[in-house]
Amino acid sequence: MKKNTSTGRKHVETEESLNSVLTFSQLPFDVKNFVSDKYATAQVLSVNESTGESTQRVVLKKGWNAPVGHFTTDVEIFVLTGVLYQGGFLLRNLSYSFIPAGIPTGPWKTEEDTIILWMPDATPVYITEDYANLEQIPQTSAYHPNMQNHERMTEYIPSQELHAMKWESTTFLPAGSARKSLYTNKKTGRATWVLGLVPMWIEGNFYAGHPTTEEAYVICGDVLGHWSMSDDPFNRRYTGMYKDGYYWRPAHIPHGPFWTESGALLLFRTSDRLDCYWMLHNPDITQQDNARLQSALDRQK
Q1: In a 10 Å sphere around its CB, with 0-12 CB exposed, 13-18 middle and 19+ buried, how is residue 41 labelled?
Q2: End-to-end CA distance of the chain
Q3: Long-range contacts of range 39-42, CB-CB < 8 Å, 24 or more positions apart?
Q4: In terms of domains, do 157 and 172 share one?
């Protein structure tokens, strides 16, 4: 039995989850006043069962709609395929939204089946009563005092399109990697971003750990390497992570090194600032090399 981490989620990192979450169970998806299981199903990738904080792969069916309202918790949405209308904003594939609790959004609708990553900070309720007698058009949520006067209005990201964003240099990884930053909390360092890797990229002869939780979902491509499986995290196992593969890893679990054959795009999230500490992948070999070098130097004296 895996124990809960300090953050309340269980470590999710197995050959199955890395290969593809499409094998995970399909469950009814229901958010009060927002969507019912008639129009949505979900695959729960990881969850804090006491708070409802989770990452889920949700299918919203064609024809679903919801009125103007606001959530009772922060919600992140990443569109994998399809089109989601959120008020006056169109979230097509590879678009992102961060919605702070209490910020009015909507009305919502889908005109085709749409697959999203649904990432609330707790079990959400969608509050519609404050807006029920208002015209159900995008201006209603945008102009509403609950939006314009909200203390977190500047944090709201209604739509961030990956296609329109420039690549940025990565902090820790070698050449051939770049990122597109979707959201960063300046106080805590919590962040959401997309990492891109060129074909044949390699990380190096080391592995790493972080003082923060970390999760990733493969949008496309492959990542090969040594993974910290949840059944035995300190004895890393080699396998591949592929399209629709996923992990959620607690802080201070060492992992890697990694590389890719075809290149990859991954969505990453951390709960705090991503600092890093490095360890040699095979220190025994390095010690042997150092011994040979020292022997050669001694012969030259």
Answers
A1: middle
A2: 59
A3: 39/63, 39/64, 40/64, 42/118
A4: no
In a domain, 26, yes or no: no
| CB proximity list for 112: less than 8 A, separation 6 or greater | 62, 82, 83
Determine the structural domain holding residue 62 and report its residue range: 31-162
What secondary structure letter does DSSP report for 101? T
Which residue type occupies 68?
A: V
Per-residue pLDDT tens listing for the chain (301 residues): 344 444 689 999 999 999 999 999 999 999 999 999 999 999 999 999 999 999 999 999 999 999 999 999 999 999 999 999 999 999 999 999 999 999 999 999 999 999 999 999 999 999 999 999 999 999 999 999 999 999 999 999 999 999 999 999 988 888 999 999 999 998 999 999 999 999 999 988 877 878 889 999 999 999 999 999 999 999 999 999 999 999 999 999 998 899 999 999 999 999 888 887 777 876 555 445 455 545 655 665 5
Q: Is the pTM of this model over 0.85?
A: yes
Looking at the structure of the chain, the number of domains it has is: 2
Distance set, CA 71 to CA 31, 75, 167, 263, 289 (Å): 10, 8, 31, 37, 58
User: Do 117 and 64 share a structural domain?
Assistant: yes
